[in-house]
């Protein structure tokens, strides 16, 4: 029946989610069993009497956790001698009662844009002090965009979508993206994870991945969002935001405080966001729930539970080709979706509809005989679809009707757990042995339907509009991994040695209409980190490790079973660093060298969809510098810079041009030589302000090196005032947040890699008929925006 169809099938145009992908289910019965087991373990952890975790009667166990492997509560160095010098106050209210308090701001520099670190590898962190100055619509990407190792690109200013990361010549698809140490949504969908009001800190380890983290893609390091610890007191937080592009957002969090005398405390929050697309027509909606519980025992055992639910409907942006971008820059003619309901490119026919649930439940139990046990189950499940124009057709009545193509994920399911037994052999050594299991699968199809009379895309399951149910496909993997780790500290904890080995075994499968394929893969991952604290101000460290990236479930789902499953990407990384801090300054310098084989990159094929391909070997080397000042007369400066020399070490065959590209020795794709940042925070009584400037140098966006984008500058400004408590309002605050103050029209990054500037693709632009464009497509910095927020704790 279809008479006119745009090039390419929906199998070539699907959208990836999850920690690099979205995946499906093993069936409702297995889902129910997984969720039941997960809930049972959490409830057991919160309800189990502390007797099972009581220390032996004749001694007090000493539990020590490596700062690179531990969750937030364990990342504070366990011995005072190893900790940075932090001002504190002692208050003796009775002969046998001593309380010790300290300000977490004493660990911060640059107004929370940098934190004092002690781990024997690079760590770059933004803290709550900085997060609280930014707009509540901020995603983790907005918060980390001034770290030295990262170039972050975001498609909108309302926080509805995420974006992309470039890190030391790699991308977010090469990174482990976590919430509380559990795999979460991909960078393009980071807003699904957690609201910014419930984020305590965001840390990036650009050159390393701990042995006990559940990551299958860590060549580019790890980004981890730490959620808030529930308050000991009953109360809450409320805020309202309004801004450019008809942005409106409401947020409410309720804190239970300690429930009775159980030691259990928790919070529940809900947010609702609405905004227009900044480019072209369309509206976006997001509803989000966060729920957290925590239980602490006196002997050091603890359990934490975090659940989030996200429902989103947003317009899938059109990312412009070079020609579209320059036409917009020079003439003002946009490239977004149209508001013409008769057009196949109507914004309601280009939308993402998705529901997601995420659970993380780490439990730490202190045992007798210097032992402790950690178990961390996690679960995520999603369901939804992406709609895109499918051309037009003429029905039996002779009426021309628009078509809609879909990427439908009937179910996405990822479930896993990490278990670890720790033994403190003596005051110098803590040894850990553990096991990681994960099962991830996607069940997806590619149906097509008639466009509705009002121009919107119907549900792909509505029989009244459906033309074809489309091909169905199942793909996924099962991971089993064993790891060992030892942390040794000597010379009064001045010397720290972390050594570990992780062996990953994976079964990968892909099943479609044509057949089934599978592969068994292994990855040996050695790690060695050495840190030496010269004195309370100076530290040097060395880190060496191997990391890998395997194809995600959706990467596999794109491939027909006639195509071989791509080989795992493998990297060997070395890092040498130096840190300094005192009462006035915090500084960190890190030199790095990476060597990659079987480099996997992803080509953007439209509608938020990608396909992977291999470009051989790649080498990256350079250095990062971070410097931040402590507050001086209210001013806290921050600066960072990265120099990167990344080169392609292989020639690559271009299937579009049927020729070998002489890419060996050229600048690696999406790897700018220079990234620089500057920030300044000012506080005076209740007033606060923060300004940032970011620079990214020129970069290649094609393997052939024949397409590039120039360097660019972006900026932000935040300011506000904390008023004195009034009635129930404990912290009434008003703040304004601005982005792109100069209104710059710049390309902030490529949507993916392409072979050359001559690669063809199908282009949609407003009411124009679909046509063939060439080369890469880009994210463009959203226009000037302002968001105003009023908030208070109560």
From TrEMBL:
<dbReference type="Pfam" id="PF07715">
    <property type="entry name" value="Plug"/>
</dbReference>
<keyword id="KW-0732">Signal</keyword>
<keyword id="KW-0472">Membrane</keyword>
<feature type="region of interest" description="Disordered">
    <location>
        <begin position="1"/>
        <end position="25"/>
    </location>
</feature>
<keyword id="KW-0813">Transport</keyword>
<keyword id="KW-0406">Ion transport</keyword>
<dbReference type="InterPro" id="IPR036942">
    <property type="entry name" value="Beta-barrel_TonB_sf"/>
</dbReference>
<feature type="compositionally biased region" description="Low complexity">
    <location>
        <begin position="70"/>
        <end position="103"/>
    </location>
</feature>
<keyword id="KW-0675">Receptor</keyword>
<keyword id="KW-0998">Cell outer membrane</keyword>
<keyword id="KW-1134">Transmembrane beta strand</keyword>
<dbReference type="InterPro" id="IPR037066">
    <property type="entry name" value="Plug_dom_sf"/>
</dbReference>
<keyword id="KW-0812">Transmembrane</keyword>
<feature type="compositionally biased region" description="Low complexity">
    <location>
        <begin position="16"/>
        <end position="25"/>
    </location>
</feature>
<protein>
    <submittedName>
        <fullName>TonB-dependent receptor</fullName>
    </submittedName>
</protein>
<dbReference type="InterPro" id="IPR012910">
    <property type="entry name" value="Plug_dom"/>
</dbReference>
<comment type="similarity">
    <text>Belongs to the TonB-dependent receptor family.</text>
</comment>
<feature type="domain" description="TonB-dependent receptor plug">
    <location>
        <begin position="117"/>
        <end position="222"/>
    </location>
</feature>
<dbReference type="InterPro" id="IPR039426">
    <property type="entry name" value="TonB-dep_rcpt-like"/>
</dbReference>
<keyword id="KW-0410">Iron transport</keyword>
<feature type="region of interest" description="Disordered">
    <location>
        <begin position="51"/>
        <end position="114"/>
    </location>
</feature>
<keyword id="KW-0408">Iron</keyword>
């Amino acid at each position: 029946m279809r008479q006119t169809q745009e090039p390419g099938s929906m199998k070539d145009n699907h959208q990836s989610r999850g920690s690099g992908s979205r995946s499906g289910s093993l069936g409702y019965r297995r889902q129910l069993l997984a969720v039941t087991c997960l809930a049972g373990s959490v409830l057991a952890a919160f309800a189990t009497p502390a007797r099972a975790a009581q220390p032996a009667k004749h001694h007090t166990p000493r539990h020590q956790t490596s700062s690179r492997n531990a969750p937030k509560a364990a990342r504070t160095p366990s011995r005072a001698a190893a900790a940075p010098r932090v001002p504190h106050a002692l208050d003796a209210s009775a002969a046998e009662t001593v309380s010790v308090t300290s300000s977490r701001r004493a660990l911060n520099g640059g107004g929370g844009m940098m934190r004092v670190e002690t781990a024997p590898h690079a760590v770059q962190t933004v803290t709550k002090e900085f997060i609280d100055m930014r707009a509540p619509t901020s995603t983790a990407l907005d918060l980390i965009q001034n770290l030295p190792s990262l170039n972050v690109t975001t498609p909108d200013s309302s926080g509805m979508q995420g974006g992309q990361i470039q890190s030391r010549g790699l991308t977010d698809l090469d990174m482990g993206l976590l919430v509380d140490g559990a795999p979460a949504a991909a960078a393009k969908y980071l807003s699904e994870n957690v609201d910014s009001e419930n984020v305590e800190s965001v840390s990036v380890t650009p050159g390393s991945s701990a042995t006990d983290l559940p990551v299958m893609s860590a060549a580019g390091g790890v980004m981890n969002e730490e959620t808030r610890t529930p308050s000991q007191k009953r109360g809450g937080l409320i805020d309202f935001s309004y801004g450019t592009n008809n942005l409106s957002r409401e947020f409410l969090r309720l804190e239970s405080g300690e429930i009775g005398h159980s030691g259990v405390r928790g919070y529940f929050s809900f947010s609702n966001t609405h905004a227009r697309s900044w480019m072209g027509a369309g509206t976006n909606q997001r509803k989000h729930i966060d729920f957290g519980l925590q239980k602490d025992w006196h002997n050091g055992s603890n359990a934490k539970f975090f659940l989030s639910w996200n429902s989103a409907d947003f317009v899938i942006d059109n990312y412009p080709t070079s020609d579209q971008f320059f036409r917009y820059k020079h003439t003002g003619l946009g490239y977004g979706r149209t508001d013409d309901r008769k057009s196949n490119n109507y914004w309601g026919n280009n939308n993402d509809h998705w529901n997601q649930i995420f659970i993380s439940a780490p439990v730490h139990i202190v045992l007798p005989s210097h032992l402790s046990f950690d178990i961390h189950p996690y679960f995520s499940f999603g369901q939804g679809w992406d709609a895109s124009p499918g051309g037009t057709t003429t029905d039996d009545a002779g009426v021309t009707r628009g078509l809609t193509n879909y990427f439908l994920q009937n179910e996405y399911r990822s479930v896993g757990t990490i278990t670890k037994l720790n033994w403190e052999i003596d005051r110098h050594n803590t040894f850990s042995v553990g096991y990681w299991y994960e099962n991830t699968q996607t069940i997806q199809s590619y149906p097509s339907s008639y466009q509705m009379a009002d121009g919107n895309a119907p549900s792909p399951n509505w029989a009244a509009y459906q033309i074809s149910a489309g091909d169905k496909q199942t793909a996924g993997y099962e991971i089993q991994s064993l790891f060992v780790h030892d942390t040794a500290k000597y010379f009064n904890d001045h010397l720290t040695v972390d050594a570990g080995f992780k062996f990953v075994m994976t079964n990968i499968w892909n099943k479609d209409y044509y057949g089934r394929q599978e592969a068994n893969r292994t990855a040996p991952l050695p790690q060695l980190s050495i840190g030496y604290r010269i004195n309370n101000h100076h530290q040097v460290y060395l880190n060496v490790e191997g990391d890998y990236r395997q194809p995600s479930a959706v990467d596999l789902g794109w491939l027909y079973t006639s195509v071989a499953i791509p080989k795992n990407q493998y990297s060997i990384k070395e890092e040498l660093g130096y840190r300094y801090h005192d009462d006035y300054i915090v500084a960190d310098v890190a030199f790095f060298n990476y060597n990659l084989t079987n480099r996997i990159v992803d080509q953007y094929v439209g509608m938020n969809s990608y396909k992977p391909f291999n470009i051989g070997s790649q080498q990256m080397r350079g250095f990062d510098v971070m410097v931040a000042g402590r507050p001086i007369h209210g001013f806290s400066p921050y600066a960072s810079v990265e120099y990167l020399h990344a080169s392609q070490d292989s020639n690559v065959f271009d299937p579009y041009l049927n020729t070998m590209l002489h890419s060996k020795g050229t600048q690696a794709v999406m790897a700018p030589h220079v990234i620089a940042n500057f920030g300044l925070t000012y506080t005076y009584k209740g007033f606060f302000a923060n300004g940032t400037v970011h620079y990214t140098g020129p970069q290649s966006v094609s393997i052939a090196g024949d397409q590039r984008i120039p360097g660019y500058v972006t900026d932000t400004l935040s300011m506000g005032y904390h008023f004195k408590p009034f009635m129930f309002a404990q912290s009434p605050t008003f703040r304004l947040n601005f982005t792109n103050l100069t209104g710059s029209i710049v390309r902030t990054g490529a949507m993916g890699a392409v072979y050359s500037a001559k690669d063809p693709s199908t282009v949609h632009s407003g009411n124009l008929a679909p046509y063939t464009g060439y080369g890469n497509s880009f994210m463009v910095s959203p226009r000037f925006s302002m968001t105003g927020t009023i908030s208070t704790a109560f």
